[in-house]
Write a structure and sequence with these properties.
Elements (H helix, E strand, L loop, with lengths): L4 E4 L11 E5 L4 H6 L10 H8 L9 H10 L2 E5 L1 E6 L8 E5 L2 H7 L5 E5 L1 H10 L9 E5 L13 H8 L13
Parallel strand pairs: 2-3, 2-6, 6-7
Antiparallel strand pairs: 1-4, 4-5
Length: 176
């Protein structure tokens, strides 16, 4: 029986010279079990990142994916530090407490933008932080990379096009 349980996010992934922070909401069950961001093979996050930097996605190791993020100035974390959730759906999240995003931004002053991977991440951030984030940090709401169907389904190509808004914050990328 799948019951509501308290779950915790994973540590942030951030290099010394991050320019953009991508915030999810809370990792799904597959990711939490493997302790790897976007571990569900149906999630399109990694395919989108690789497309944005002009590389072919050939199912690299998790360590290689993390190296790509850091090399291209992308930090990764979640809006939520812990919550109660049954299953993996964002719509099932209750009683969330945010991660300390302001401390991360303070420790990494090179971050110029926050990209929100989906509506829940953005909603949680707005609830807890919108009025306290430095005004020079761009806030960019992106379509979710989740495999869960949404009200506004998009193809991978459409998501890549939408996510290309963040390319100006990614270092050393190639044109698509």
């Amino acid at each position: 029986m799948d019951i509501n349980k308290q779950i915790y996010s994973m540590p942030e992934i951030v290099g010394n010279d991050a320019h953009i922070l991508v915030l999810g909401s809370m990792p799904g069950g597959v990711s939490l079990a493997q302790q790897q961001y976007y571990a569900n093979p149906r999630n399109q996050f990694w395919m989108i990142v690789y497309a944005l930097i002009g590389k072919t996605y050939e199912n690299p190791s998790y360590a290689e994916k993390i190296d790509v993020l850091k090399k291209h100035h992308i930090a990764l974390w979640d809006s939520i530090h812990y919550c109660v959730r049954k299953g993996s759906l964002d719509s099932a999240i209750k009683d969330e407490e945010p991660n300390d995003i302001l401390s991360l931004l303070s420790a990494h002053p090179g971050i110029q933008a926050i990209a929100f991977n989906g509506s829940k991440s953005f909603a949680v951030f707005k609830k807890h932080f919108k009025l306290t984030v430095p005004p020079d940090i761009a806030l960019i709401k992106m379509p979710s990379t989740s495999p869960t169907p949404s009200r506004y389904p998009k193809t991978l190509e459409q998501k890549i096009e939408d996510w290309s808004k963040i390319k100006k914050y990614i270092g050393h990328y190639q044109s698509l």
